[in-house]
Design a protein that fits this description.
The protein is α/β, with parallel strands linked by helices and 393 residues long. The protein folds into 2 domains: 141 residues, 3-Layer(aba) Sandwich (Rossmann fold); 201 residues, Dihydrodipicolinate Reductase, domain 2, CATH 3.30.360.10. It contains 13 helices and 15 strands. Strands 12-11-7-10-9-8-15 form a 7-stranded mixed sheet. Helix 1 packs across helix 12, helix 5 packs antiparallel against helix 13 and helix 7 runs parallel beside helix 10. The two termini are 36 Å apart. The mean pLDDT is 96. Bound molecules: nicotinamide-adenine-dinucleotide (NAD). The site of nicotinamide-adenine-dinucleotide has 23 residues, from helix 1.
């Protein structure tokens, strides 16, 4: 079969835009033609474009006219508007996590600690509906960039569930490290919440996905989340928190520790932790306790490699693993971190969907269920863990 070409635009020129661009180099089923980049930080966009030999555009609209797909690698607050602008032009939108959210009432003094969380749930559900409506009308699609779904360990677990007819009884998982780098992340008005949404969305979506796989394999229909009980805390903002310089602690009005307990419609359960208070590198894993097997998906770190380095300086120009505090002593270097994380597999799948119409595993529906679950969880956390029903899409 002849390879089709896809013209691409990247929106945003920061951290996510960088790994998206790197992964595009690994797409093999489609010719990817990166047309250019647009970001509101024009200096950053110009430098990003120059380094990669692409053009920096002055507006979103100008770039949209030239491409088949845009990568939405901006802060979550503008995911909805950019995705809808693309869909209205019949273009595809690869949208980074979280799909959308609630970013306050627009006032300068909006405070994520004090507003009624039901507002966040109502507004984020309305945002999802607008996005799904735009997608329905469009020839384009929302491709939800949830790399956990494409991580090789999660895909292997999918195969085990499908081929053995497993019933998942309980999942528990976590995404955690010592604090996100983005300055905007500290503010609810840009991020739409704290660690529960920013990091919790990853293991949560993987858990939602695997119950969906189980249901489809058994009855041709996903098993949806029904209710959630949650807690959210701001540990680094406690008066008594003692800062030793290892954990980011300049958050303005967001949570840095969260727990969601999810009950699915068949009564089975998942417990999802997310935190910004963990030392020793990124800690991303999902454990599946099924009726016929048990699996631990180690996304990061994993033990593909184990190295002992007696002197920190030896490894000065060697990348070991994301967010590790030191390279001295024993470590688990990731020989191909992007691969274990699912980034290149996700891009390959998305470009096949765009070029050849292949179905995707990470679509707007699972993204919508993730957002609905998380904002229901914020409502629960406000009530110190009372159970809240989840609306699904
Ligand atoms: N899947 C993952 O593992 C992963 C990792 C990191 C970040 N992310 C997600 O990627 C997104 C971006 O995060 P980041 O860390 O790259 O942030 P960043 O701060 O590094 O970069 C954001 C970029 O967006 C640009 N921008 C802001 N508003 C814009 C607008 N209205 N139009 C065009 N450009 C605009 C900025 O100029 C900047 O270039 C977030 O949704 C984040 O949650 C995902």
């Amino acid at each position: 079969m002849e390879k089709k070409s896809v013209r691409t635009g990247i929106i945003g020129a920061g951290f996510a835009a960088t790994f998206h661009f790197e992964c595009l180099k690994k797409v093999y089923g489609t010719h990817v033609d990166v047309e250019g980049v647009f970001a509101t930080d024009t200096e950053q966009a110009t430098a990003f474009a120059k380094k990669r030999g692409i053009r920096a555009y002055n507006s979103l609209e100008e770039l949209l006219d030239k491409v088949d797909v845009v990568h939405v690698c901006t802060p979550p607050v503008v995911h909805e508007s950019i995705a809808i602008a693309a869909l209205e032009r019949d273009k595809f939108a690869i949208v980074e996590k979280p799909l959308t959210g609630y970013f306050g009432d627009g006032s300068n003094d909006f405070n994520g600690d004090t507003f009624a969380k039901q507002d966040a749930l109502d507004h984020s559900l309305a945002s999802i509906k607008r996005m799904l409506k735009a997608e329905k009308k469009s020839k384009g699609k929302i491709l939800y960039a949830e790399n956990w779904i494409y991580a090789p360990s999660i895909q292997k677990e999918r195969e085990i569930i499908e081929k053995t007819g497993a019933q998942i009884l309980w999942m528990h998982g976590e995404e955690a490290h010592s604090g996100s780098h983005a300055t905007t992340y500290a503010y609810w008005k840009f991020s739409g919440g704290g660690v529960m949404i920013g990091k919790g969305c990853h293991p949560l979506t993987a858990a939602l996905y695997l119950k969906r796989v189980e249901g489809k394999a058994k009855n041709g229909k996903p098993i949806s989340p029904r209710a959630v009980s949650a807690r959210a805390h701001a540990i680094t903002r406690l008066k008594g928190f003692e800062d030793k310089g290892h954990i980011r602690c300049d958050y303005h009005d967001i949570d840095d520790f969260s727990l969601m307990h999810i009950v699915f419609e068949d009564g089975t359960i998942a417990d999802i932790f997310a935190s910004d208070i963990i030392l020793g590198g990124i800690h991303n894993w999902l454990e599946v306790a099924a009726n016929n097997h048990r699996t631990l998906c180690n996304i990061n770190p994993n033990s593909a490699m184990k190295t002992y380095n007696p002197v920190e300086e030896y490894f000065n120009d060697i990348y070991v693993v994301e967010k590790t505090g030191t390279k001295q002593g024993w470590s688990n270097p990731s020989p191909d971190e992007d691969w274990f994380t699912g980034y290149p597999q996700e891009m390959e799948a998305f470009y096949r969907a765009i070029a050849y119409g292949e179905p995707v595993e990470s679509d707007s529906n699972i993204a919508a269920d993730c957002i609905s679950t998380i904002y229901s969880a914020y409502v629960s956390a406000e009530k110190a863990g009372a159970e809240v029903a989840i609306k699904t899409f």
